[in-house]
Amino acid sequence: MFRWRSWPRRSRTLHGKRPFRPIGRVILDQAMSRLKPEDRLVITLFELEDRSVREVAELTGWSETRVKVRAFRARQALKRHIGGEDER
């Protein structure tokens, strides 16, 4: 049986102090933290985990229409927080 060897991962550090995270990830994390919990949930499931509308609806107990509307509004809020669109 073939087994992958578990190689030790080198963590990126900035001047040996704290782990380095790409700036895009930092911006996304900050913007996600400003969303409502339901919006974070739908973005995580639908966009980051690449689940279907039906799967998100089953996991949350929401209707498929509600998932689509919530995802649209969550993306709009995320864009506003990141600065990609002016607030209306």
Task: Describe, in plain words, how this protein is organized in 3D.
The chain has 88 residues and is mainly alpha-helical. The chain has a domain at 37-88: Arc Repressor Mutant, subunit A (Orthogonal Bundle). The chain is 57% helix and 5% strand. A two-stranded antiparallel ribbon has the order 1-2. Helix 2 (37-48) packs across helix 4 and helix 3 crosses helix 4. The longest helix is centred in the C-terminal third of the chain and has 19 residues, at 64-82. It starts with 12 loop residues before the first strand and ends in a 6-residue tail after the last helix. Residues 1-9 have low confidence and may be disordered.
β-strand number: 2
- What distance separates the N and C termini? 60 Å
CATH topology of the domain at 37-88, by name, is Arc Repressor Mutant, subunit A
Sheet with the most strands, sense and barrel status: 2 strands, antiparallel
Low-confidence stretches: 1-9
CATH architecture of the domain at 37-88: Orthogonal Bundle
Strand order, sheet with most strands? 1-2
Proportion of helical residues = 55-70%
- The rough form would be described as elongated
Mean pLDDT metric: 81
Rg is 18 Å
Strand content: under 5%
Main structural class: mainly alpha
* CATH class bucket of the domain at 37-88: Mainly Alpha
Count of helical stretches = 4
Order of helices and strands: EEHHHH
